[in-house]
Amino acid sequence: MKTEVMFNCGNSPKMERAIELTIALAQKDANLVNSHVREDFIWKIVGKDDVISLPDLTQELSKKPDVTELNVENALSHGNGSMCEGTLLFEDGSHLYFCNVVKFVNTAKDALVKEGHTYFIK
């Protein structure tokens, strides 16, 4: 998967973690996701009623189409929250705009993610 991430100062560990989590989700890499989240992590795709828990994540990711390119165009963090947004390109040539919003356990720079919300727009 080709990955492009906007330039940033590297001074925001939580912003970097949000970007890394987004990359892990796009790669369908449950082990990498696990390194960024708590055991009680939940993931919501906005507009769907499903709340995906960590034990169900691998199965849910396997249902998603393969991403060939991820472009992170913007990322921000403040307090115990962070977000990143950009575009996903799929094998069939289709693409989606996305925004991942994550909430950390606390404001520590090495805090784990406890919750994530993803918005998709065609």
What does this structure look like?
The structure is a single chain. With 122 residues, the chain is an alpha/beta fold. The chain has a single domain (2-121), classed as Roll (Nuclear Transport Factor 2, Chain: A), CATH 3.10.450.50. 23% of the residues lie in helices and 47% in strands. The chain contains 3 helices and 7 strands; from the N terminus they run E-H-H-E-E-H-E-E-E-E. It has helices at 13-26, 30-34, 54-62, and strands at residues 2-5, 37-45, 51-53, 67-78, 81-90, 95-104, 113-121. Strands 1-4-5-6-7-2-3 form a 7-stranded mixed beta sheet. Strand 6 and strand 7 form a beta hairpin. The longest helix has 14 residues, at 13-26. The protein starts with a strand and ends with a strand. The mean pLDDT is 94.
